[in-house]
């Protein structure tokens, strides 16, 4: 059950208005410092909206990882701890085990989650830690100035793959969602994008499910969000967004890779074959 | 001043570590300061294992005994390694079922005990080291038999009363063998 | 004779000390010679209302500790030398975050994989911070199974008092040996309430709690450094601990910690029987180091020389030399490779030092 937000009213110049769009309570008033066109801001907002809608702001504890989102705690308005590069999910494990009433959010980039922190990621997921991870895959190391990431795609130029990523020299882009989906400890894992309005809405649905998996004590959850880094990709924001939709999605297909809620429904349907299909209304594909 | 330093050595699985703990615990309840330390890690993988026991009426320095005045060797390699280390006037107990050597030294007291045979008679070959301990302590007499019994009861879970009894019997069987020879 | 004495291993006694101090979280990764710690924890911590995690690595363990500590729990990890190297990253972050926690190092012989025998090669690492950045960790050096329990207990207290990581710098001998322990001085305590700063689920209305180590602007960082430095200065004034043995009339003072300090005690007794006036000064905290008391000995006319015995190539001896600052000759008697001292190993060079306090064989010369 989610709380239906009340209609808020604001007074501007003595005039009374209904507030139709505002800053989520879970965000501070500090303006984002991300580059123009970067999706980190979009994703922050989606996460904050979901937290507001679930009414869990004061239960949330965030893990700030190392990457462009290192200062994410400046923007999210709840308890936070800043972690060493790659270690967010280990720190998160400690927090959640000691304070099981908290709702733990880990916000990580691809270098953080899929290179230096691979072991922490796989094992937190495999232990089924009740943690929700937002994995921002921008196929590059944004913060350090555009080096190759584990998710850099074949042929993509970065400052450390100046001729484009060559799989014979450095291997292939790593698909974390597909990998983690194999682990029984994982309750929910989906890959979404943020390259248009529709995909942004789907991302929000996925984020909410990921938190639900934690709130209902089902296991580890992660949403991998394909994001852009127009600055280090050396593209205009529009070209960068297009590149996410056209190129990145070929290598990293959006979809739901593990969803215990859908499995529940599947099972319920199998157990009660007489009931009609129409009764299951929830859409699982995001 | 009392300073007893023991090395008990044999194959892993013979119960060497356990008899060392029996002796050290018995020493403790007798009022002494005691210490026990195992040889640990790869050394104890290669077949031979040993532990050191120190019993003293003063605060114990190193738990590692570099010149023991009491040694039990449960197999041939342990005999070769530790027989020369026994301090002058010290005691050596040899399990003759696995170590067929005998000591040429006249400055130590050596006792030869068919520990495995006696253990089988008592009821189980796993008691082999406890038999050796019984013989060893019959020579040493540093801690009382009652305290050794207490140590056996401390180490073995109360629920395994059968095992406690077997161990106690093995201990006295070793003692009796020595006293009768 | 106290009826309270129980016979146990150093590594297990350390766990009992932790339980009595209210430790509620342990994460660790297997490594000899400290395996009894995670084993004992995994068996018993649940009965004390705590949580055990066998982590995927030492790096993960120390970071789990950071989370557990940030969430308000008394938390501990343990390892041996190679694993402690991996933990240094986390210890640096924890020190900077000013989070309390206890880290035990049952030191084995390095560098590299080395071997699993007792050693003291991690002294510098433990007393100089160990990871990157300018920080210190309170470091206690036990020399008995009793002190394994007691110092872990004390480490929790000091860690909370100063909001700083506290290390227990043990060695393979102390971790592996069994000895009688008396827990009567270690009553079970309720861990302190940390809800005024820890991360937790809370009612609306309280300021949010933020724990961070990043200060991009030098102007922002400088006051943080200053705060830390001032804290370290206060710790140095308040927490220096040491004990001595027969040092009142000693002409040659031995300085030793850990298992060599036990052998030193035997050497002193044997030495005094042959007329060598020996005494022992044993630092209990190696950071903060008891420079002051060693300086006092060095300034005494009675003391002819100071002998440092370590199972390494000379680490603590540098602290001792700093304290003595040239007032008396400082000698260094080492043991390498994981070999352990006998009393005679110490007495032989000491006899030579008595003959010639400047004996070049053992004289410690700073190069
Ligand atoms: C141990 C360590 N190694 C390297 C760095 C430097 N570093 C900071 S951020 C970063 C990469 C971050 O990339 P990603 O996680 O993809 O985040 P993004 O900036 O792309 O959002 C690196 C290598 C560090 N902080 N710590
Ligand atoms: S560098 Fe890239 S990832 Fe970082 S804020 Fe700018 S656009 Fe975003
Ligand atoms: Mg990135």
Layout of helices and strands:
The complex is a heterotrimer of chains A (286), B (181) and C (367).
Chain A: E1 9-12, E2 15-18, H1 39-54, E3 60-64, H2 72-75, E4 79-82, H3 88-98, E5 103-109, H4 110-116, H5 118-126, E6 132-137, E7 140-141, E8 147-148, H6 167-170, H7 176-181, E9 186-193, H8 197-215, E10 220-226, H9 230-233, H10 237-251, E11 255-259, H11 260-271
Parallel strand pairs in A: 3-4, 3-5, 5-6, 6-10, 9-10
Antiparallel strand pairs in A: 1-2, 7-8, 9-11
Chain B: E1 3-11, H1 16-29, E2 33-38, E3 48-56, E4 70-73, H2 76-82, E5 91-95, E6 109-113, H3 115-122, H4 128-140, H5 145-155, H6 161-180
Parallel strand pairs in B: 1-4, 4-5, 5-6
Antiparallel strand pairs in B: 1-3, 2-3
Helix pairs in contact in B: 1-5, 3-4, 3-6, 4-6
Chain C: E1 6-9, H1 10-20, E2 25-28, H2 36-44, E3 51-54, H3 58-70, E4 75-79, H4 81-97, E5 101-109, E6 115-118, H5 123-127, E7 138-140, H6 145-162, E8 165-171, H7 172-176, E9 178-181, E10 210-211, H8 218-238, E11 242-245, E12 252-255, H9 258-273, E13 278-283, E14 285-287, H10 291-299, E15 305-310, H11 316-324, E16 330-334, H12 343-355
Parallel strand pairs in C: 2-3, 2-4, 4-5, 5-8, 7-8, 12-13, 12-15, 15-16
Antiparallel strand pairs in C: 1-9, 5-6, 7-14, 11-13
Helix pairs in contact in C: 1-2, 1-6, 3-4, 9-12, 10-11
The structure holds thiamine diphosphate (TPP), iron/sulfur cluster and magnesium ion.
Describe the main β-sheet of chain A briefly.
7 strands, mixed
> How much of the sequence of chain A is in beta strands?
15-25%
Rg over CA atoms of chain A: 19 Å
User: Uncertain spans of chain A, ≥5 residues at pLDDT below 50?
Assistant: 280-284
In the CATH hierarchy, what is the superfamily of chain B? Pyruvate-ferredoxin oxidoreductase, PFOR, domain III
Overall, the morphology of chain A is: globular
CATH topology descriptor of chain B: Pyruvate-ferredoxin Oxidoreductase, domain 3
Question: Proportion of β residues of chain B?
Answer: 15-25%
């Amino acid at each position: 059950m989610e709380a239906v937000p009340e209609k808020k009213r604001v007074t501007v110049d003595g005039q009374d208005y209904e507030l139709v769009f505002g800053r989520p309570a879970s965000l501070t008033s500090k303006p984002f410092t991300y580059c123009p066109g970067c999706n980190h801001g979009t994703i922050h907002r989606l996460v904050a909206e979901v937290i507001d809608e679930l009414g869990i702001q004061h239960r949330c504890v965030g893990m700030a990882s190392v990457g462009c989102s290192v200062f994410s705690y400046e923007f999210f308005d709840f308890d936070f701890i800043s972690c060493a590069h790659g270690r967010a999910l280990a720190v998160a494990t400690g927090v959640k085990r000691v304070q099981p009433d908290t709702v733990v959010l880990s916000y990580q980039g691809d270098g953080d989650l899929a290179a230096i922190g691979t072991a922490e990621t796989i094992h937190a997921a495999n232990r089924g830690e009740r943690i929700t991870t937002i994995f921002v895959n921008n196929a590059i190391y944004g913060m350090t100035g555009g080096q190759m990431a584990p998710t850099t795609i074949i042929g993509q130029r970065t400052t450390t793959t100046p001729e484009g990523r060559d799989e014979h020299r450095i291997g292939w882009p790593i698909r974390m969602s597909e990998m983690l989906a194999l682990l029984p400890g994982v309750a929910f894992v989906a890959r979404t994008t943020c390259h248009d309005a529709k995909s942004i809405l789907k991302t929000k649905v996925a984020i909410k499910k990921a938190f639900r998996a934690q709130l209902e004590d089902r296991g580890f959850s992660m949403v991998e969000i394909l994001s852009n880094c127009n600055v280090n990709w050396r593209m205009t924001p529009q070209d960068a967004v297009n590149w996410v939709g056209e190129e990145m999605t070929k290598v990293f297909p959006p979809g739901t890779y593990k969803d215990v809620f859908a499995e529940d429904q599947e099972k319920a349907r199998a157990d009660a074959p007489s009931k009609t299909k129409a009764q299951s209304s929830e859409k699982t594909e995001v | 001043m009392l300073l007893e330093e023991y090395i008990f050595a044999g194959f892993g699985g013979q119960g060497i570590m356990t008899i060392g703990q029996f002796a050290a615990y018995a020493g403790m309840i007798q009022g002494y300061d005691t210490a026990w330390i195992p040889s640990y890690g790869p050394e104890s993988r290669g077949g031979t294992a040993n532990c050191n026991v120190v019993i003293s009426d003063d605060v114990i320095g190193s738990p590692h005994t570099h010149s023991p005045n009491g040694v039990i060797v449960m197999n041939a390699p342990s005999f070769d390694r530790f027989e020369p280390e026994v301090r002058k006037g010290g005691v050596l107990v040899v399990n003759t079922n696995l170590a067929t050597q005998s000591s040429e030294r006249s400055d130590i007291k050596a006792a030869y005990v068919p520990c495995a045979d006696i253990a089988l008679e008592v009821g189980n070959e796993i008691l082999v080291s406890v038999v050796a301990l019984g013989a060893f302590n019959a020579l040493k007499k540093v801690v009382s038999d009652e305290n050794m019994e207490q140590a056996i009861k401390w180490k073995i879970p109360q629920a395994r009363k059968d095992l406690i009894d077997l161990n106690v019997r093995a201990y006295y069987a070793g003692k009796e063998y020595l006293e009768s020879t | 004779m106290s009826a309270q004495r129980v016979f146990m291993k150093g590594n297990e006694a350390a766990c009992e000390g932790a339980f009595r101090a209210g430790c509620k979280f342990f994460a660790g990764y297997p490594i000899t010679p400290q395996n009894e710690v995670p084993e004992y924890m995994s068996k018993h911590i649940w009965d004390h209302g705590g949580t055990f995690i066998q982590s995927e690595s030492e790096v993960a363990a120390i970071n789990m500790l950071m989370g557990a500590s940030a969430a308000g729990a008394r938390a501990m990890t343990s390892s041996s030398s190679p694993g402690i190297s991996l933990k240094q990253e986390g210890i640096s972050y924890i020190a900077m975050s000013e989070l309390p926690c206890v880290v035990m190092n049952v030191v084995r012989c390095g560098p590299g994989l080395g071997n699993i025998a007792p050693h003291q090669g991690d002294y510098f690492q433990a007393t100089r911070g160990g990871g990157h950045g300018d920080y210190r960790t309170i470091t206690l050096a036990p020399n008995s199974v009793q002190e394994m329990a007691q110092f872990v207990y004390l480490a929790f207290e000091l860690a909370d008092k100063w909001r700083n990581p506290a290390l227990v710098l043990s060695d393979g001998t102390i971790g592996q040996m069994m000895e009688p322990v008396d827990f009567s001085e270690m009553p079970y305590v309720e861990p302190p309430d940390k809800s005024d700063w820890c991360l937790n689920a809370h009612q609306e209305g309280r300021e949010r709690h933020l724990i961070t180590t990043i200060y991009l602007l030098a102007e922002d960082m400088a006051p943080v450094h200053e705060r830390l430095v001032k804290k370290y200065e206060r710790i140095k004034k308040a927490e220096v601990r040491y004990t001595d043995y027969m040092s009142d009339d000693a002409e040659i003072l031995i300085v030793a910690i850990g298992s060599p300090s036990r052998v030193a005690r035997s050497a002193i007794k044997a030495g005094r029987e042959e007329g060598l006036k020996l005494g022992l000064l044993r630092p209990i905290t190696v950071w903060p180091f008891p420079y002051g008391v060693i300086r006092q000995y060095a300034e005494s006319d009675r003391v002819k020389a100071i002998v440092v015995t370590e199972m390494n190539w000379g680490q603590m001896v540098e602290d001792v030399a700093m304290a003595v600052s040239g007032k008396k000759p400082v000698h260094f008697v080492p043991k390498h490779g994981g070999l352990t001292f006998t009393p005679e190993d110490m007495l032989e060079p000491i006899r030579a030092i008595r003959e010639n306090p400047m004996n070049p064989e053992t004289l410690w010369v700073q190069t």
